[in-house]
């Protein structure tokens, strides 16, 4: 899939092992599915970013507080059902899947290479968690001079107040922050 629009939607960390902690009892997945459908309808490439490690977790440092607890757990390695993208928002043929090894979508992945190859200069961010992958990716993407949009209701965090502060006070310093509906209306 080419990036003829110069824009790509990043759907980040919406994997079964993550959604079970965050999205149960919410309308998050249907909202996100709607945003993905809008992107596809407008020819905007959808890039899925997933967290994944090698068998035995040799790529997880004991000093990494976020991931060290996973070492030896069998989580987010090949064959782990929890590593799969949630079926409600699953990739379609032609979508790109990028595996990252840290919090930011760029850390330990070939995302930058993929985006440059597709001639993408603007990123639309959605994912779980607002205070994790979305925040880290936004900061790194801004430093890499990407234009940025954050779909506020396409992000989810365990802490509603953290989500609110990030989407209303922090992210607007580096990105346009809109709801999925507002983004759809901008594309119309």
Automatic annotation (TrEMBL):
InterPro entries registered for this protein in UniProt: Isochorismatase-like_dom, Isochorismatase-like_hydrls, Isochorismatase-like_sf
UniProtKB keywords: Hydrolase
Domain Isochorismatase-like as annotated: residue spans: 7-180
Pfam family membership, one: Isochorismatase
Listed GO MF terms: hydrolase activity
Matching CDD domains: cysteine_hydrolases (cd00431)
Listed name of the protein: Cysteine hydrolase
Organism: Leekyejoonella antrihumi
């Amino acid at each position: 899939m080419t990036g003829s629009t110069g824009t790509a939607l990043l759907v980040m960390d919406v994997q079964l092992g993550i959604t079970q902690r965050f999205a149960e009892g919410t309308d998050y997945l249907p909202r996100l599915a709607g945003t993905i459908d809008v992107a596809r309808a407008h020819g905007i490439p959808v890039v899925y970013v997933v967290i994944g490690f090698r068998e035995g977790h040799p790529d997880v440092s004991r000093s990494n507080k976020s991931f060290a607890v996973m070492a030896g757990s069998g989580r987010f390695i090949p064959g782990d059902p929890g590593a799969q993208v949630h079926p409600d928002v699953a990739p379609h043929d032609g979508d790109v899947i990028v595996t990252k090894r840290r919090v930011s979508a760029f850390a330990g992945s070939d995302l930058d290479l993929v985006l440059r190859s597709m001639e993408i200069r603007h990123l639309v961010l959605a994912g779980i968690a607002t205070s994790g992958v979305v925040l880290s990716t936004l900061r790194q993407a801004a430093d890499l001079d990407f234009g940025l949009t954050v779909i506020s209701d396409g992000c989810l965090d365990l802490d509603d107040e953290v989500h609110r502060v990030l989407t209303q006070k922090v992210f607007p310093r580096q990105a346009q922050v809109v709801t999925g509906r507002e983004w759809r209306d901008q594309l119309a």
